Amino acid sequence: MSCDWLLVDGSSMIFRAYYGVPAGDPGPDGFHVNAIRGFLERLGRLVSQRRPRHLAVADDEAWRPDWRVDLLPTYKSHRVAEPVPDGLEPQLPVIRDLLEAIGIDMVGVADHEAEDVIATWSRLAPGTIEIASGDRDLFALVESPRVCVLYPERSGLAVIDEDEVTRRYDIPGRRYMDFAILRGDPSDGLPGLKGVGAVTAAGMIRRHGDIAGVLRDRELRDSDREYLENAMRVVRPVEDLPIPLPSGRRDSYPADEAAMRALADRYGVREACSRLLAAVRRLASTP
Q: pLDDT (tens digit, 9 = 90+) per residue, 146-200?
């Protein structure tokens, strides 16, 4: 069944495309176009499979926002050691320009990540929502039956709803964020509490309800209390960014056919662009 909104973590999908598609020979501008081609292909397949009524793509304006690092210096520290690859950097503006020419909303907000844009849209959007992302932080937004996450795995897209969160982590379905903070998560630079693994973290959530309950009910070292309080502010996606909900669909596509064709020809991605265009054109005809 079609969802009302498909919200795509553009940064997550772009990185997966970059690493998942062989670079091949450089394009006519002297840089590789594997991320451009791979992103267009993946987005086109996703739209065709899920057939949403509305579509929007969120962007990272900050890979590691300063305000989050100020609160938790280890936050996504791997992004310092592994910044945006040189081969990917010049492809990013091309992807944005192509989506604009096709007519697909792609939005970022200064000093914030794509997850914050998606969280804000999820609060504003009516109806059912599917969030496409490889970032488990967004499991915090699941709200059955209204919101689920489409999480890429080797077997394909896993549909993460509250029941699936409970099955995987043995916690209430809306408590993934609290669980990750307690257990720790290297991908986010979360150290967790010393001596607390997945089983202990799940037990703490079941007993105390959430981190607010842990802070209220348990005796903690000052350093642990500070970590939990700061991590809750850092990890929680921002839900009140000053942005509107985009239209999410057009009466017809593309928005700028001449620009789209020029870009597709210039970067040698005409076929991938045509398949995405065909997929979003069906949005305009979906009731």
A: 999 999 999 999 999 999 999 999 999 999 999 999 999 988 899 999 999 999 9
* Shared-domain flag, residues 41 and 180: no
Residues 50 and 155 grouped into a single domain = yes
CATH number at residue 46: 3.40.50.1010
Residue 35 and residue 132 share a domain: yes
Query: How big is the CA angle at 141 (ends 95 and 137), to the nearest 5 degrees?
Result: 65
The CB density around residue 185, as the number of other CB atoms within 10 Å, is 16
Smallest Cα–Cα separation from 131: which of 279, 268, 7? 7
For 78-129, give the DSSP string: HHHHS-S-TTTGGGHHHHHHHHHHHT-EEE--TT--HHHHHHHHHHH--S-E
Give yes or no: residues 214 and 249 share one domain. Answer: no
Q: Which of 284, 280, 248, 273 is nearest to 56 (CA)?
A: 248
**76 touches 115 (CB < 8 A):** no
